[in-house]
Amino acid sequence: MDVDRSLVLKLFEAALGADYTTVRRIGGRIARDLAEVDAEGAKALQAMLRKRGVPLQASGYVEALPRDAGSRLPLVEEMAWPTSPLFLNTDAGHVIEQFIEDANNIALLAENGISARLGILLYGPPGTGKSLLAGHIAARLGRPFYVTRLDSVISSRLGETSKNIRGMFDFIPTKDAVLFLDEMDAIAKLRDDRHELGELKRVVNTVLQGLDSLADEVIVIGATNHPHLLDPAIWRRFPYKAELLVPDSAVRASMWSYFLFQDSDEDGASDLLARLSEGMTGADIENFAHAARRRAVISREDLNLAPILLAVATNKEGAPRLPDNRALTVDEKKMLSQILLDRLAMPQTEIARTLGVSRQMIHRYLKGCDDG
Ligand SMILES: Nc1ncnc2c1ncn2[C@@H]1O[C@H](COP(=O)(O)OP(=O)(O)O)[C@@H](O)[C@H]1O
Ligand SMILES: [Mg+2]
Predict the structure, then answer these.
(1) What is the C-alpha separation between 365 and 201, in angstroms, rounded?
(2) Cβ of 245 less than 6 Å from ligand 1
């Protein structure tokens, strides 16, 4: 690969000027060029670029960072691009791919008279990956990722909230940014009686004005757990909408594989877990998997599938039963055998293999359950 001198100069200039957005962009170009001669090297560079986000402080924005007058907390921050993978159901995946394609072609669309503000609203239950997805979109677009949590912008002081929101929208320092408004339902919570009636309306208006004041190139992502609480005018400001539902079975299998087995599982264990974990979110699965791995590491033993299966199958929302890594008692083995039979219609030989006991034993367990 020939070294492009002007690129190298630009790279150093950007690095010394703490302009990390440009550093990343040049890095991306180098990685693309490099890919033709050194695929490994290009991959490593890309991984590095994905990993290293830069907080606004490091970019020298610290003085300008708008803060809440009371708490002194920053109202908007530049966050690192996420490093962990995202698993999406097919429907949401399609919407996101289309959105990214459109965002990558803003200029072309504008040339053809279709200049629309590119905003996408992500909604769905907590723990389904909305915040993670927002970061992934920024990474895919190679744009700096500015995050503001509406719940932290809402001030208890009268009148301060609108000022905060204005400060936040005024701040967006570069036009090629992704602005992520997380936890948007916080606005609707102003409806409670601690706040005077007019305040909700004022805050909603300030958000609308803020959204309208942004440069066309800024890409806005909103997230909310309660879309029905969102003011309809705000809802309309986001032409794209993606609902993040709890993961389907195939997605759950990928999640188990990644979070529990670091993608090196065998014998369809992830599929088995997926079939027993309907209703769990990505955050739940991550939590479970990490709990199981912690136990295994601390007890210095291999991951033990049976107790994880039992914990997942008997998990109750709100009262999670995290797995431990010890051998199951006889009663627990009976319970798990019955669950695998009832819920998955699993043949006895397979139950035996899963539990690591003989078929005859399973036969006795299941008979015992019938008797009892
Ligand atoms: N769809 C998903 N794919 C991969 N990881 C996920 C997914 N959903 C949740 N997680 C895991 O759970 C964590 C919390 O999810 P988060 O993005 O905060 O959910 P939300 O914003 O919808 O409440 C993520 O950081 C990630 O580790
Ligand atoms: Mg979130």
Answers:
(1) 63
(2) no
